[in-house]
Amino acid sequence: EKILKEVVSRVDGKRYWLGVFEVSDHPSIDTSQSYLYGYYGRLLCDHNKFNEARPYLDKAIAGCGNSVPDFLSTVRARCAAQQGDYSVAAHDLSALVERSSIFGTSVMSIQPKWKETYSRMSIDYALKAKDFNRDELAKLYKQLADLLNDNASKIEKLDVLKKAHALMADSSGDKGRLAQDIANLTAMNRGANKDGPSPIDRATELKMQESAATLAEKSNAANAPQLWMNLAGSEVQAKQYDSAIEHIKKAINVQQDKKTAYSPEGYPMPISDWPIRSLAEAGRQKDAEMLCQTKLGKIKGLFGPTSSQYSHVLAEVSIFYATQNNRT
User: Fold this and answer.
1) Residues 6+ apart with CB under 8 A from 218
2) pLDDT per residue over 156-173, tens digit each?
């Protein structure tokens, strides 16, 4: 400690004396000023001198820019937590997990459980911090969920994703995508359940699908119609026919005539009509026919009766009627 303190003092006073490192038998020791501060800060932390160590650790991390070594993140997180600065501790560990995930150069790349451990610690620190940003906390939960990929963690992964979703603001562009991820994961878990689908799982799936569709509609997203139709399809499977009909109407109503990346020629974004067919198969044929006519009228109003778009949907409706007649 005394030697490092003297070296740091000389560096700070621009009286450089790094020869002690240049002739070291340990070539892994970095002689840069930032690392020097980091080594000294770590040594002070090892002696529980956290208040004395913190300024050196702050200097070290600031000096490393985007190339902060793992040991600096973990040491400052420990130091900050001891000082009650839980927000910094949470961000340091989260950043450590993110770097190791992106660049794959960290020792944690070969020890995936370490990433999970640090991710959990970052959440614990964030929950202890005063006024920790909700969106930032949501990102920490999402980060942990991304690490829970084994079969034993499926239930926890869902719970963690739900926490992230609840924290996100509706204005967040990620909330709708997260809702759809939750719905998809719930459906997968439900399908794998040997005891049959759980009413709770089905309710979660429908709730998240509705959230995704609502947010897409609010943001005027091109896929909003399909998301409403996806929800209707799930409701048909759950035999919630009245809700399905209302959401199919919603899917038709939010159709747009604008050009999109998906539909560069201005065609309406394709919507699967299998929920309408399934309604007919479930004995709700009159409702299905009404929805076909509603869809046809919507496209006619958007593009006109002589448009190729209208002809396309008219052909779909004709096939529907032909199929129904064959059944009778």
Assistant:
1) 170
2) 999 999 999 999 988 887
